[in-house]
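User: Show me a protein chain along with its predicted structure.
Assistant: Here is one chain, sequence first, then structure tokens.
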Amino acid sequence: MIDAAVAALRAGRPVVLPTDTVYGLCAEPTEAAAAEVARLKGREARQPMALLAGSVEALLELVPELPEPLLRALLPGAYTLILPNPARRFPWLAGDNPDAIGVRVPELPAEAQAIVAAVGCVVATSANLPGGPDPRRLEDVPRELVERAAAVVDAGELPGTPSTVLDLTAAEPRIIREGAVPAAEALARVLDARLGAEYDPRV
């Protein structure tokens, strides 16, 4: 299954993978593959999607301008971080704001970790239809997504609460979506990380 999923991703085809929160619909982070994920999910192409990596190192290889001390203070973890993207890398993932990029480094189940590590990074969004429930189990993933995915990895039941989305593009951090990490805890961790790293989000 690992080899099949890796081959599918490298061929630009979508796969369903478990994360540390919910099942995700993932693909190679190319413009064409990301557009296919959006089409399968039935979402507008301008809606942003996250770049998901197996490690901070892999993420920095693709987007070296990201603030490394902050990443290492918060990740791996159940966060989606929206960060400045001064080089405008992967603009097709950014929606209406190419100056920002959403990134994730989750604590993945073993098979998913091996798959993502083999390809470096993927574009990821929850494996549901717009407005649908977050998929805790593979059985919760809509059948049309399972049937159209080139590979599916089953890791059993997941926590089922999506990642907490933090916007860190301004001086004050902002919770876009409270999820697996409570808002108060997330903001406290960001404050601690910034104080420890002397991080300036405007740089």
